[in-house]
Amino acid sequence: MAASLIAGVGPVQGAIGEPEKADLKLGFIKLTDMAPLAVAWEQGFFMDEGLFVELEAQANWKVLLDRVITGELDGAHMLAGQPLGATIGYGTQANIITAFSMDLNGNGITVSNDVWDTMSQHIEKEGDKPVHPISASALKPVVEQSRAKGERFRMGMVFPVSTHNYELRYWLAAGGLHPGFYAPQRGDTSGTLEADVHLSVTPPPQMPATMEAGTIAGYCVGEPWNQQAVFKGIGVPVITDYEIWPNNPEKVFGVTESWAEENPNTHLRLLRAMIRAAHWLDENNNANREEAVEILARPSYVGADAEVIANSMTGTFEYEKGDVREVPDFNVFFRYNATYPYPSDAIWYLSQMRRWGQIAEAKPDDWYMQTAAKVYRGDIYAQAAQSLIDEGLLSAEDFPDFSEENFERPFQGELIDGVAFTPRQPNAYIDSFDIGLKGSDTP
Amino acid sequence: MNTLTTTARPEQNVWLKSLASRFAGIDWAQTARQLLLPALGILIFLGFWHLTAPRIDTSLGAFPGPAQVWEQGGQLWQEHENQRERADKFITMQEERNARILAKNPDAEVKIRDYPGAPTFIDQIGTSLVTVLAGFVLATLIAVPLGIVFGLNRHFQAAVNPLIQVFKPVSPLAWLPLVTMVVSATYVSDDPLFEKSFLTSMITVTLCSLWPTLINTSVGVAAVNPDLLNVSQVLRLPFLTHVRKVVLPSSVPMIFTGLRVSLGIAWMVLIAAEMLAQSPGLGKFVWDEFQNGSSQSLSRIMVAVLTIGFIGFLLDRVMLLIQKKVAWNE
Fold this sequence. Notes:
The complex is a heterodimer of chains A (443) and B (330). Chain A has 19 helices and 16 strands. With 443 residues, chain A is α+β, with helices and mostly antiparallel strands. Chain A has a five-stranded mixed β-sheet with strand order 2-1-3-14-4, with helices on both faces. In chain A, helix 13 (264-286) packs across helix 18, helix 14 packs across helix 15 and helix 16 packs across helix 17 (365-375). With 330 residues, chain B is mainly α. Chain B has a two-stranded antiparallel sheet with strand order 1-2. The chains are: A alpha+beta (443), B mainly alpha (330). The A-B interface holds A 1-2, 5-6, 9-10, 22-23, 30, 52-59, 63, 66-67, 70-72, 204-205, 208-209, 212, 224-225, 228, 232, 234, 297, 299-300, 302-305, 308 and B 59, 79, 86, 89-90, 93-94, 97, 113, 116-118, 180, 184, 195-197, 275-278, 280, 287-297, 300.
């Protein structure tokens, strides 16, 4: 690593001016998808840009967001819903933008052994192994059992505006289970109105322990916390988010709008470093992933055991103990234009916020377009990427064609319920779900 | 190695001599109480720990025993050394680079930056110590003068006492969100002298550790021998002289009792505040390791726990020493 640092201090000055702020502190949560930040540091990409970056792990998503807003952090690895939620004033109000999408996929849904015992009786088998993807309808009998006993069926997710919350809700609703509404206009932010399955916030590392204690019967979380349940024999991952929506957008890199306006060169230089890092992670058919696993396993980054991190970072996923399957795209950092912040990604998140009541009132299609364009800044990304192309560090084929509008992420595959995602008609899309708010409904 | 043994020998002799004189003194009972019993206590604790740890099965593997913790302690030190080496390299590199730049253009602006790597365990200990001392000193500067005023003026004390009683039991977990928000809102500067996280932790520590010193000082001051007070009154000593010559000397033991309790609380509060707010320090180290969830995490947390305990103990001892030096009885 020292070698790469030494190589890094030589200045590679592009068309972009000197950074306004060279000493930066960036926050992250201990999850494998913070990899572009760690790699940009370790490979000296930040240094190449004349940036002296300190990476700091944060306790939870709330602390991370607050510290970006107060300026203690210059920017951070964020849940895609955080810049959107903050901009529209759900939870916290602050203008946060993103010009870099950090990865695709990377989450899973795990249920406890007890739940799995009942569930697996309702799942089709091929040989002795269940057929994937598994629908939440198999969970229905379990939920009905606990309702008959007068108990609530509880599951965990990591944050109210997290990808995980929307993915878990999506999967449950696709299987005919109601995950509950939010009603912020009445001060109800528990998200459990009319719920069949009650979802609650649990920090990622506490998920396995909370499930083991019986407080929740399952959860949706990023790696390594699904594989951890398998390793410990306390639960069974039933589905990955890749099977819910192939190549779905995951984390983003967020900064406040005012920070971006005050430090345009610094922002571009950060983006250049992270784009190169993401490219490094996927180049030569994931050839660098082993090295990335070693970097991530260091205590100052993710810190989990290398073998656990490697399980998902190198293209496999273990469902029931011993049921290891190939999921080559479990974690994607650069392929399929993963890093480009398509406004359509934002529209999907906003559509789910409306569907579950976090956005309390119906909004016109225009509002969705404007909010997405305000938060997802492809223009800034294009500037950074173009300068990398001009310098010959990356080639134009690596990126979408910047002369196009690039509104919509290229078709990634069907979502699990078969409902077509139509980002240009957000209201029509929201109305096409069986479960969820429609039109001008309020819960 | 050689120098080590040669320097060690005289010390060893001294130690042996003192041991011999102890034997000669034949105060066996006292020697046992002072040396053997604590050692026995520690041994029994280590044995108990060693035997029970492997039986506790957590989701991160078996609970670490003393051996694993010792090993991780060594590893943390090693990591610190490695990081320091890198930091030195980083500085030399910058110096060379700056020299090159200056050779080309003598007017160029150059700057040497600190190594931006993650802080090590040892760095975190340093950060925590600085923060706790800053918070404690601030608390002392507020609590001692206030305590003296309260002790001297009973009406004032009666008026403020309810407030003290209400604020005293407030946990750092309750103060922290308030302090964080207030610091963020009021401490705005382009080139801040302190980091916001430092201020937040420090003020939280101050708010929680202020009370024992305040209460003990006021009680100590109120309990000054009335004869002395009368003498002071007869001599018509000016207020400050009265405080300095009469009140302080007799209330110093009480003040120090308060200070020691305050420092203990300050240290506990700091670790909690760091864990909750993710300000740099030992608390953050513990939380980060908990989130790492690797097979080494629990051992590393145990290293931190023992370090926290040991530092707390040392801080108390240092206060005791200062108390002995300061407690004048003229």
